[in-house]
Structure formats: structure tokens, C-alpha cells
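Researcher: Let's run the pair from yesterday's discussion. Sequence first, then C-alpha cells, for each.
Model: Starting with the first of the pair.
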Amino acid sequence: LAGGKLEVRLGSPTGQLLGETDVKAGSMGAVTVAFRQPVSGQHSVFFVYTNPGAGQKPLFALTSVQFMTEK
């Protein structure tokens, strides 16, 4: 897997950027994306994968998502 950047966006693939992180090539572990600001209510959330240099290689695989709140 080529790795790349994982962006979390609100409302559409080009919507407000909530958070982002780099995923290293060949990485198999958990990845954490901290949101830049709190979000409330019910929204569509889009996970956008980018790596312009990867060509046709798969970037990474997403097997599960967990949202957590800070107290």
C-alpha cells in the first residue's frame, strides 16, 4: 500500500476540512485523526484519500471507524 494523506471532511469530499493525518506506506495499524474544532448535530462525513505520486497503486485500506468525544 502506497500510503498518503487521510482527510476527514464535512458534507462533501470538498467540504470543510475537519482533520487530516499522514498514513505511512505499508502501515497496518490504527490511525487517529483529531478534529480541528467540535462538530455537533448529524452530518455526512467524507474520508478523502490523497497521494498524487501513487499512480494506480492502492493508498490504504479502511476497515473500521470509531468516533470518540472528549469530556
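Model: Moving on to the second of the pair.
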Amino acid sequence: LIHSVNTGLVMNYSCDVIQTVCETAMEIARGPGGQMDPGIEKLVRDSFTWSHTAGDTVQRLRTVRQFMMN
């Protein structure tokens, strides 16, 4: 089950959702003064780091290739 197409699809989808949620939190947290809470800043930074290690373009293409072969 680890090598199934579904795991790749879920990982790609979760990376997209995490980035969207963190970007939205960043927009909400950034007040009129432009200052942002350091905790939210760290979450945004970590979400983009995670997406580059787990949901990069190579992983997306590999998932599509597996999907097309099945």
C-alpha cells in the first residue's frame, strides 16, 4: 500500500492544502502594522520547506506516471 498511487495523490494534495492554509493564516495574522506572529511565520516557513521535500515536481510527475500505468 505504501507504493500505491493513492499515497502519492494524498501527499501532493496535502502539500497544496498545507500551503494554502498557511498562506491564509499569514494574511489574517498580518495586521495593519505589517507585523506577524513569529509562530505563524515559522509555520509558513515550515510548510514551504515540507512541500519542497515531500511534494516537489519530481514526486508529482512520478505519481502521474504511476497513475497512467495502472
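Researcher: Give me one sentence on the second I can quote.
Model: The mean pLDDT is 78.
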